[in-house]
Amino acid sequence: MLHTTRTPTEKRLALREGLTSGTLQRFPGAFTPLSAPLIQELGFEGVYISGAVMAAELGLPDVGLTTLTEVTRRGAEISRMTDLPTLIDADTGFGEPMNVARTVQLLEDAGVSGLHLEDQVNPKRCGHLDGKEVVGLDVAVQRIAAAVAARRDPELLIMARTDVRGVEGLPAVADRARALVDAGADAIFPEALRTLEEFAAVREAVDVPILANMTEFGKSPLFTHEQLASVGVNLVIHPVSLLRIAFGAMERELRELAAHGTLEPAVERMQTRARLYALNDYASYTRFDQHLVDFEVPGAAASAAGATDDESDEEGAR
After folding, report:
1. Of the residues 165, 213, 234, 244, which is catalytic?
2. pTM of the full structure
3. Where are the domains of the chain?
4. CA distance 50 to 239
5. Is position 89 annotated as part of the catalytic site?
6. pLDDT (tens digit, 9 = 90+) per residue, 227-252?
7. CATH architecture of 8-242
8. Which of these is catalytic: 119, 163, 191, 198?
9. For 166-206, how does the pLDDT look when each residue is reduced to its tens digit (9 = 90+)?
């Protein structure tokens, strides 16, 4: 009830253990805090917190307009709802190396298990769009070095994302990935790779875990978990999938409501009240409240009786 039962460090250790387990770690993106317990219940290994989703929920494009405050708040809201590790998108770190350091510490305080920082130029854009620009290798390395120096819990995972594939081609990815690992990155997120062979090449280039982004409508084909595991990918995210599923369903049903004036035919496709209450642990809150209401303070009955006698004496005196 209310919060995860695991400490942030416990979840960070679980993330690190999962990444070295030899089993692909599957992190669907949490559309809302309430989707985090659903991801946990269905047996996934972790929860991803997407910058694109956070922007979309605010009605903004994914071009670096969200603030550190907004991202930190959402990271805390989702992380408290699950015992699973959470990995959050920290964009470019919200500024220069000192800003990156503050970003890391605030997200650490928010309870996330890991974060990734990218090497795009601000204003950034979705990693699967054309026209991206990346910073020089020196700036990219500075960002990661600042992040590593700022963290206080050594178990917090610092992941480096590189978008260089879409700018300079595949050979640059391996070179940049190695430099980011040398700067202290615990894992590498090579964005917008095109083939399984490209993932295999990155796997060969570095000795830290690597991530695959399986976002729909992007540059990367939607490889299966089995295919990704076969080339040595350690973690896969599905960042925007739940948002797309939800908004697709909302649009379809709103069209029906506009056309027919009722949602009665859609009820069978809706989440039931009972299922909602199960996910937000309604019963635990009810039990807690009843426990407080039913609780009898020791000595309270005698005190109440004494007060009544005193009141009666006063009435008699009057």
Report:
1. 213
2. 0.90
3. 8-242
4. 6
5. yes
6. 999 999 999 999 999 999 999 999 99
7. Alpha-Beta Barrel (3.20)
8. 191
9. 889 899 999 999 999 999 999 999 999 999 999 999 999 99
